[in-house]
Design brief:
single chain; alpha+beta; 7-stranded mixed beta sheet; globular
């Protein structure tokens, strides 16, 4: 198994990882934190995928994809915090005025989990942000206990777990008042300067 992480500029590959089985379904497409709430609520069905297709044509694209032998198997959303709802989120504090990038979603396709792909995605997202001038990257993972023993609902595991970010060199920067799947979220940061 050779995992390669690349910018998410191929929409069909993003669709493979994030898209619904039924084209008309209203799935997240990882837009909830990326766009204003009003627009997020207005985009329905295929319009959500069309919006993501446009993001994939932008520079920079909306995140990174992990490939296993050419097959898209994972996704990580990463963008300047100023371009996300984290810029205005009252539950997740700002540590300082540094123009950090946010890494808020790490998703690995079923059938490909427990193989280190999330670690590759975190590292790839950090390198992507670094290549685009990010001075630091923040993440807002679930803190599921010192031993990682609190079970996390897979539908809410997209935020990642604290220990995976610690393994990638992120440090605890602040507590938050945000809770996901019954677990507190913490603000983790990796300084790239």
């Amino acid at each position: 198994m050779t995992i390669e992480v690349r910018p998410a500029s191929v929409f069909e590959d993003v669709r493979t990882v994030l898209g619904p089985r039924s084209p008309g379904a209203n799935v997240c497409w990882c837009l909830s934190y990326r766009i204003p709430s009003k627009l997020n609520n207005e985009l329905r069905g295929p319009a959500r995928g069309e919006y993501v297709a446009e993001l994939c044509r932008n520079d920079p694209p909306p995140g990174v994809l992990a490939y296993d032998d050419g097959e898209p198997v994972g996704w990580a959303a990463v963008a300047p915090r100023a371009d996300t709802s984290f810029a205005r989120n009252r539950k997740i504090p700002h540590v300082d005025d540094l123009p950090v990038w946010s890494l808020w979603c790490v998703r690995v396709r079923p059938g490909h989990r427990k193989r280190g792909i999330s670690h590759a995605l975190i590292a790839g997202a950090v390198e992507f942000a670094r290549a685009h001038g990010a001075p630091a990257v923040e993440a807002y993972p679930i803190d599921n206990g010192d031993a990682g023993d609190a079970r996390v609902d897979l539908t809410m595991a997209y935020a990642g777990i604290r220990k995976n970010f610690e393994r990638a060199g992120f440090v605890h920067a602040a507590d938050t008042t945000s809770v996901l799947a019954g677990c507190p979220r913490v603000l983790m940061r990796l300084d790239l300067r």
